[in-house]
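Mods, move this if it's the wrong board.
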Amino acid sequence: VLVPGAMLYPKDYANLKEAIIQASTRDRDVNVNLAIAAVDWSLLSLSASGDQGGFVREITRAIVDAIDIAINEHGFQADSIMGGSRYTNIAVAMHSMSVIGAYDFPMKRSAGVILLGTSLLPAKGVCGSLYSYPRPVLSIYGTLDGQQHIVKAALAIHEVLAVQHHRSLSSTASRRAFCMISGLNHGMFSNGWVNHARGDLESDADQLALSGEIATHIVDFLKASVCSGNKNIERDRILQAKHNLAAVSYTHLRAHET
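Not the wrong board. Structure tokens:
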């Protein structure tokens, strides 16, 4: 399930959707049924009231409602685990501000999380960091993303390296994969519009090509983490997906850790 960024809607992710479908088609193991949630972003007006706690709660509720609707419309089935509803075959991708909802459905009920040009926000009373987040996470950033502050990306790198200190590179990649895509700005995750007012940077890169790169990393992540327990997928192919993620993560982490 892909959750759009603020004031963005399913139609804005047509390029990425097509790229993910194509990447899934090329990969004989991962059949992605992509649902894009339609979030009611009219609630953003609440931020002007100054009640940040109320704002976060309402936006989180809107995001979770949109995810539930998308799941129901696509007929996804939940597994009953300890009396709750968990989806062992659903990953949630969050672009930009939709990461506000990361500590609800994605953390409690999904099988994995994909962060697109965004970082986990500190949250009182929950894990509050990429290091301790209880689901597998793929973080994808762009070198020209002016809206995702570099300090937050640097923190994500630090936290992934902290995980790697206790695990093998392959194991780390399936739990905390990291990709920094050259030439990608914030708008290219969606409709390509460059929001100069918020600091995003111009790019002359081919958006379709970069969408394909994003999609390839996502499909590898799904195979290496969300689908890793699927007995219909040969073990060697799951290990290859982990190797692909590990190679990308290692290269990108070492290139940007300073």
